[in-house]
Structures are given as C-alpha cells and as structure tokens.
Amino acid sequence: MRLTRLLLLVLKDYIKRPFMWFILLSIPLICLGITLSKTSIDEHDILVGYYIEEAEGNLPESMDRVRENLANYDGIFAFVEYTDKEALIKDIQKSNLECAYVFNDDLVYNMLKGDRDEIIDLYVSPETTMDDVINETLFSIIFPVISEKHLEKYLTDNSDIRDLFKDGVYTLEDIDSLYNMYYSDGSTFRFDYEGQPDSFKITPSSILLSPINGIIAIMILLTSFCGALVFYKDSDNPIFRIWKVRIAYITIPSLLSFLSGAVSIVFISGEAFANPFSQIGKLFLYTLMCIIFVCLISIVIKSETMFAAFIPIFLLGCLVFSPIFIDVALFSPVLKPVSYLFLPYYYLIM
Amino acid sequence: MTKLRLFLYTLKNYIKLTPLALLATIIPLLIVGTLFWYTSANLYEENEIQAVNVGVVTEDIKDSWYNKAVKYLGNMDSTENTVNFIKYENMDQAYEAMETSEIMAIIYLPENVVNGILYGENIPAKIIFPKNINLGTITLSELTKSAAEFLSAAQAGTYTTGDLFEEADRYDIVSSAFDMVDIINFSYVLSREKIYHKNSTDLTSNINQTVFYAGSAIMLLLLFIGVSYNKVLRNEDKAFTSLLRLYKISPAYVIFCKLVGFTIILSVICSGFVFAASKYLKGSDKFNIHFNLPVVLIVTLLTLLIAAQCLFIFSLSEKISSCILAMFIYGCLMTILSGAIIPKVFFPRTLETFGSHLPTAYMHDALLHIMTGNPLKKGLIIMLAVYVAGFTLVTIIINTIKARRAN
C-alpha cells in the first residue's frame, strides 16, 4: 500500500473521532477566549492593602500626600486603603490581597527623627510571592515625601542658607514648588523600556498566554507519542509491522496537532508574537523533528509497556526543563545540559 | 469469574506494570535530583537555586561610579536573591546571551550615564526585554521603576538645593550642600529594608518557592503517571465486556476494582517515598516531612483522587491516544488554573476564585502539608473526598451508559 494512501486512511480514522476534535480544538479555543477577554490592567491590578493607625483625628499633611500617592500609583499593583485592621488581616488570610501594610500616621515624622527600624508592619500569607517587589514599590511611593520633608528640615535648620529662611527670603513653599517641579517635569533620571511588540501590555491575558507556545510544543510531541502507542497496539498484527505504517501512525496526529497549534498562534499573535508566520514555520520544523525523534525511539524501544512508562517522565521533563513556565537553567546552570535532552527546548530557543 | 477474582486480576495487572513505571519515572528523577543536590552542595555553597541573570552593558565599564551603581542594583533586598547582574562588554554579546536564554533582560547604561545622573544631564538607561513576556520581566520592570523613583526624588532634592543656593549667590558652598543632600537620601535608600516587620497571617507557614514548585512538579507527575498504567485504566475491549456481562458484573464494580487497585499501588509507592524522604531530608530547612499515620491517610486520600481523575479521563474515549492527550491537557490546565505554576495573583479575580476550588488546588495544598508539616487547611479532607466521590460517580455513569448502549 502506498504511503499517501496509508496517510489518508489514518487521517480518516482520526477525523472520525469527535473526542479528538474536542482535544485539538481546546487549545485554540482557550487562546481565543483569553485574548477576547481583554481584561485591562486597570480592571485587574494586584491588590495590596494598607491601614493607617491614626493617633489623633486628622492625618498629618505628609500622610495625606502618601495616601494620595498610593491611590494614584500607576503600575501593576493597586493599593487599597482599609479602615478596619481586622478586615485587612482577614482578607490577607483569604488571599484576597497579595499582602498588606499597617503603619502609623506619624510614619514620616518618625523616619525624620531617625526611627526607621520595623516601623511598617507587613502582613503576608503562604501564597504571597511578590512582597519583596511590593516593598520596593511602597518605599518608592513614600520616599519622595520623606525626602522632601528632610530636605526642608536640612535647608531650614542646618544648611548654610538657613538664615534666608528665617529672614523670610525663602519659604517652605519655595522648596515645595521647586521640588515637585523637578520631580514631575521629566528632567530627572528614567529608564526607557524596549523589546516588546507594539501592542503589548502586561495584562492577565499575556501572563496566561506566555506558556502557550511551550504547551503547543509539548502537545505535538505527545501526539507523536500517542501515534506510536497506537502503532504498537496494531503491530500485534504482522500486516501493520511495516515502516510505512509506523510513519503514517506517527505523522498524522503530529500534523493535526501542528494545525491546532498554528491556529492558536494566529489567535495569540499580537499578544505574544510579533510575527506569527515565522513562528508557524518554526513550529512546522519542530513537528518534523518530533516525528523523526518518535520514529527512532519507537524502533529502539520494542515494548509498548516500556514506551508508555517512558512518556510521563519525558512529559514532566519537558515541562520542567524546557523554558515553558520558567527556565530552570537560569536558576541552576548545572541543569542546563538536561534541557538539551528535551525537544521543546530547541523549539523554544529558536 | 467472581468479583474477588476480578479485583485480584486487576490488582495483578497493576503490579505487573509497576516495575516499568517506577523504572521509567523514578530512576531519571533520582539521577537528576542527586546531580542537582550534589552539585549545589559542592558548587553553590549557600543556595542550590541561584538568581536569574540580567545583563548589564555600558560604555563606562571601568568607571568606578558605574560599578557602584551595578552593586547598588544587585544589593537591593528584592534583587539580592532573585537577580544576578552580569556585565557584558558590548551589546552584541548581551543580545547573544539573551537569544540563548542565558540572561533574562539587558540593562544598557549609555556613556556617561552615571555622570549624567550626578550632573543633571540624565541620559536615560535602556532596559531591553526578550520577545516574550514572562513573570521575570514584570518583576524587573517594577523594580527598575522603583529604582528610578528613588533617583528621581534624590535628584529633585539636589536640583532644588542647587537652585536655592545659586539664587542666593552661594556657589562657593553649594557642592557641600549637594553632598549633604546625597548623604541624607542615600541613608534612607540603603536602609529601606529595615523599615518592614514581616508578619505571616499563617503563623506556622514555612512554605518557600522551592517547596511550592516541588509540590507542583510532584502533582503533575502523579497526574501523568496514569499514562504508564493505561493498559489497565482504559476501557476493556468488547470481548472482555461481554464476559463481565455474562458473569453479571456491573460496570460500577469494574470501576471500583480499578479505583481501589490503582489507589493501593500508588499509595504504597508514595508512602514509600514519603518514608524515604522523611529520613533523607531530616534536618532540612526547607522540608519538614514526617512519616506517621495521619500522613499515610492523607497520601491514601490523595492517591484515591489521582486514581479517580485518571479513571474519569480514560472513560471518556475508547482510543488510548485521545485519552493520553486529554490527560495532558487536563493536567496542565488544572495545574495552571489552580495557581500551582503561575501565581494566582496574576489571574483575573473570577478566575482566581474559580481556580482555588479546583481539585488540583486541594491536591497541591495536601502535598504542601506533607512536605512542610503545616496544619491542614480547613475543609481540605472534605473537599478531597467530595472530588473523589464526584469523579467516581461520573465515571460510573459514563461506563454504565456505554454498557447499556453496547447491550
């Protein structure tokens, strides 16, 4: 029987399976759903709670400014003020907040006095992962207020021009207006960011889509393995023990997965890829690599049971050692050579 | 065939497949694990996990201020254990390193950037990310934003001082005023981590990232291990089904045999590993594994849920390839949505709530309890039992319907 006819027969067998269609369409549909959801960064920020313990009725002006800066912060964190400390801690325990801070309303005053040790209580839960980063962010919000207040104190009390303040030549408003002007007019240091596609934003959808490329790669490899398993089962019958059957059984499911992956890539292009067509080209090359690899493995491993036993660990190895969710080699270079054993690694670094 | 004989036959089939499943799964794990721990003990004295690499490129590579700036970035409390700054001589080298994933991003400091900061030119530094976003790039962008805010505030103070001194014609002493303002600002920035007092709302929690992701990896392995036992888990062929019908053995009983048999095998294997881990990892600062009756019961319940899920997946289709693919998609999707791989904090609120009630979320909590000895979360046992009952019931219903259609 000709190879093309065999390929078509196997294709017909796969097309007739509704469950297979469901599986092949699941990833593209998930990708489509995530890209269409378009949750903006404003609708989903990482929530951080804070509570200000007020000693007296009114907040000092410095704390009002801290509160205003926290409310206006523009980033991936959203700072939410709580009026009840117990409610704040309960929300942490329920993981409604990433973490929370409790501080006194005389925080700025205390820091100016030099009292800086453990003056902000940080509350975390076992699921908190970003507290270190949020600490830096919180401090970067408080610091401008403290810096300005300390500057005022220095200039009016200790500097060589303090007399000018006593004589009324300069006032605190002069310091305030100059400081805020320089802080906000763009004349100070900044970082420029580049390297992302034009339409790129840090959104929940981009986070959820970031491992999709790797998952597609693994699915193609897995369907190649599955095709080989079917070949093992059918090769009990001597009629099926020819190389053309092996190739047909492994190639067709791999190509069907490739099509599913290609459609997914088209759906997520813009969010994750600048050029989907070059990515699809790389995916096709990778699919061919998988077909060849699995054909060779299935020739080497004669036993179906052994082959099936080999799949879970290989799958897990692909998930861990290929840079799908995280690149383990970045954290532990000794594991980098292990990555070379897994095909998805080569696709993902292309 | 009696019911007992069927159960023993099923168990025998599981036992026959176990040596190969262990060989193909455990030995590679042991090899990699031993290599990892041995090498980390000998090469990386303190941490087996090292920080992620970020490349730094500058024209001012010999400038002492540049070296201080890189040191400052690396000593930030939030970066010290997570980011490692590597200097490159030029952008080509850095890009090449980023292409091969040796580094996660590039920070480019143009010529005279440090002098620019000191003397007011403020040439912006560039941060270059790779094509695809990931959690590391988000973290780095927030950290650099914070670093830029510190510098901006400090510079605003310096420029304000400069303006006031110059207006007062005090050019002769303005540089000492600049130094004083810098000292004031540096004193705050360099001691900023001391202002926080960390409190855990779960006082017994000692879960760190190593333990958390080890739990995720173990959970995925347990979910995928059903593939090794596909010969037993998959639906029987028509001849065997007819035989069972002849002996009036219901599909529910067949499911029961497979469920209990798989649970026995998995719980024995997993209990063995917990026992070995409790001895080998005794004294570890990350893991706190005890081998006692409550742990064995949790392991049994966990493996019962794994078995129920595997049986459910394999009942969906007659074709082994479809079942294996379904197992993979189910395992990955459930693990991701339950927050065991990507932190839930990045999910939309509704997805976060939904994910925390998935079976894999409870499985992950159970594994973390076994690995750390933390108290069990409220309702965990009940939810695991509910999911076992749910998956088993659905599997029985599916198989009963299929059997009736075959009749």
What does this protein structure show overall?
The complex is a heterodimer of chains A (350) and B (407). Chain A has 350 residues and is α/β, with parallel strands linked by helices. Chain A folds into two domains: 3-38 and 203-348, no CATH class; 46-151, D-Maltodextrin-Binding Protein, domain 2 (3-Layer(aba) Sandwich). Chain A has helices at 3-15, 18-37, 61-72, 85-93, 107-113, 131-158, 162-166, 172-184, 204-209, 212-234, 243-268, 276-300, 304-321, 328-331, 336-339, 343-348, and strands at residues 46-53, 77-82, 99-104, 120-124, 191-194. In chain A, β1, α3 (61-72) and β2 form a beta-alpha-beta unit. The relative contact order of chain A is 0.10. Chain B has 407 residues and is α/β, with parallel strands linked by helices. Chain B has two domains: 3-42 and 208-406, no CATH class; 52-195, abc type-2 transporter like fold (3-Layer(aba) Sandwich). In chain B, 67% of the residues lie in helices and 6% in strands. The longest helix of chain B is centred in the N-terminal third of the chain and has 41 residues, at 3-43. In chain B, 41% of the residues are buried. The chains are: A alpha/beta (350), B alpha/beta (407). At the A-B interface, α2, α4, β4, α6 and α8 of A face α1, β4, α6, α7 and β5 of B.
Question: How are the elements arranged and paired?
Answer:
The complex is a heterodimer of chains A (350) and B (407).
Chain A: H1 3-15, H2 18-37, E1 46-53, H3 61-72, E2 77-82, H4 85-93, E3 99-104, H5 107-113, E4 120-124, H6 131-158, H7 162-166, H8 172-184, E5 191-194, H9 204-209, H10 212-234, H11 243-268, H12 276-300, H13 304-321, H14 328-331, H15 336-339, H16 343-348
Parallel strand pairs in A: 1-2, 1-3
Antiparallel strand pairs in A: 3-4
Helix pairs in contact in A: 1-11, 2-11, 3-6, 5-6, 6-8, 10-11, 10-12, 10-13, 11-12
Chain B: H1 3-43, E1 52-58, H2 64-75, H3 77-80, E2 83-88, H4 91-99, E3 106-109, H5 113-119, E4 125-128, H6 135-167, H7 174-190, E5 196-200, H8 209-224, H9 230-233, H10 238-246, H11 251-280, H12 293-315, H13 320-337, H14 349-355, H15 359-372, H16 380-406
Parallel strand pairs in B: 1-2, 1-3
Antiparallel strand pairs in B: 3-4
Helix pairs in contact in B: 1-11, 6-7, 8-13, 8-15, 11-12, 11-16, 12-13, 12-15, 12-16, 15-16
